[in-house]
UniProtKB/TrEMBL annotation:
Origin superkingdom: Bacteria
Pfam families the UniProt entry points to: Sigma70_r4_2
UniProt domain RNA polymerase sigma factor 70 region 4 type: residue ranges: 148-200
Family: Belongs to the sigma-70 factor family. ECF subfamily.
Region ranges (Disordered): 117-137
Alphabetically ordered keywords of this record: Sigma factor, Transcription, Transcription regulation
Protein known as: Sigma-70 family RNA polymerase sigma factor
Classification via CDD domains: Sigma70_r4
Gene3D superfamilies in UniProt: 1.10.1740.10, Winged helix-like DNA-binding domain superfamily/Winged helix DNA-binding domain
Alphabetical list of SUPFAM superfamilies matching this protein: Sigma2 domain of RNA polymerase sigma factors, Sigma3 and sigma4 domains of RNA polymerase sigma factors
C-alpha cells in the first residue's frame, strides 16, 4: 500500500508506477513546488549515486566536492531549457531508470571535459576520449544502466513473450527446445518472438534527451 505525507506526496519508499511518474513530471512542469520537493527527496539519492559511480571511473571517487558539484550540474541540466529533460520523459521506463541514465550521461560529459593529467593539472578532454578503452569503468556503468532498462522493459511483456525471449536470447535455446519446455507449437514461437522483439525495440528507443 502506498503511503502519503500530509502534503499529499507519496512516501519515498512507496512503489511508483509509470503513470505515477508521468503525473509527477506533469506537476513539475506546471511549477508545483511541493512536487519539486517530492522529486528531490525521491530521486536525489539515486542521481548522486550514479554521479559518484562516474566520479570513481574518472579518479574522483574520494572528492566529495566534485561529486556534489557534478550532482548539482545534473539537476541544472534537468531544469535547463524549460526542463527539456523532463519534457522528454515519455513514461516508457520508470522515472528512476530514466534519471539514472540522464545522470550517468551528464556526469560522464562533465568529468570528461575536465580530466586530471599526470602533473595534477586539469585538462580539457572530449567525450570520445571518455569512451575509449582507458575508461572501461564508464562503459561498464552505461552498460549497467542499459541492462537495468532492458530487464525492466522485459518484465512488462506478457508472460509468454517474456519466457520466449529469455529462453531464446538469454539461454540460447532452439525453437524445438523452447517448444518442448513451454508446450508451445513450434510454428508459433517465431511469431511470439518477433512480437516481443518489436515491443522491446519500441520501448527501448532512447528518450529524446541530450545533455550536451
Amino acid at each position: 500500500m502506498q503511503r502519503t505525507s500530509s502534503a499529499g506526496c507519496r512516501d519515498v519508499d512507496a512503489p511508483a508506477s509509470h503513470e505515477d511518474d508521468r503525473a509527477l513530471v506533469d506537476r513539475l512542469l506546471r511549477g508545483d513546488a511541493i512536487a519539486w520537493e517530492d522529486f528531490v527527496t525521491r530521486f536525489g539519492r539515486i542521481v548522486r549515486s550514479r554521479v559518484a559511480d562516474v566520479a570513481v571511473a574518472f579518479g574522483h571517487g574520494n572528492d566529495d566536492d566534485a561529486v556534489d558539484d557534478a550532482t548539482a550540474d545534473v539537476f541544472a541540466v534537468i531544469l535547463a531549457n524549460d526542463a527539456a529533460a523532463l519534457q522528454a520523459y515519455e513514461g516508457r521506463s520508470s522515472l528512476v531508470t530514466y534519471l539514472a541514465v540522464v545522470a550517468t550521461r551528464c556526469a560522464t560529459r562533465g568529468f570528461a571535459r575536465k580530466r586530471i593529467d599526470g602533473s595534477g593539472n586539469e585538462q580539457e578532454d572530449s567525450l570520445d576520449s571518455a569512451a575509449s578503452g582507458d575508461d572501461e569503468p564508464v562503459r561498464r556503468i552505461i552498460r549497467k544502466e542499459q541492462q537495468q532498462r532492458l530487464l525492466e522493459t522485459l518484465a512488462e511483456l506478457p508472460e509468454k513473450q517474456q519466457q520466449v525471449v529469455r529462453l531464446f536470447h538469454l539461454e540460447s535455446q532452439s525453437y524445438a527446445e523452447i517448444s518442448k519446455r513451454l508446450n508451445m507449437p513450434i510454428g508459433s514461437i517465431g511469431v511470439t518472438l518477433r512480437r516481443a522483439e518489436e515491443r522491446l525495440r519500441k520501448n527501448l528507443e532512447p528518450d529524446t534527451f541530450d545533455s550536451s
